[in-house]
Amino acid sequence: MKKVLFLCHGNICRSPMAEFVFRHMAGERVYCESKAVSSEEIGNGIYPAAARMLQQKGVPFGGHRARQITRADYDAFDYIVVMEEYNLPRLWRIIGSDPAGKVHRLLDFTDTPGDIEDPWYSGNFEKVYEQIYAGCAALLEKITE
Length: 145
Prior knowledge:
By secondary structure, the protein is α/β, with parallel strands linked by helices. About 40% of the residues lie in helices and about 15% in strands. Helix 1 crosses helix 6.
């Protein structure tokens, strides 16, 4: 079974949204988790606006607490999926390098590669959800092809 780790800055908005969307799509075909590249939000739950968006879209979620990626996670997961380029410098400080080519941006699996904006700042949870959904669908297709 393939293992996917979704990462964003604090693990309270984008990466938990991706985790729950992907889990909802993939079922038991793929294992996934989400974590942060920073330590700022460790222990905090999913941001209320992100939770509301998942609820509106009918995506089950619950029990989430923000955690930070560790060096050991690099070896434990097949895919390390960041939300934006900005996440990479902090990721490299934690894991070192990416000799196995596991690190990708989520939207790079789609026909419109790029960054997923941080809705903590933009407030645009609808747009972010749509981008995450598209990225998760494309990633699942790649993994299960």
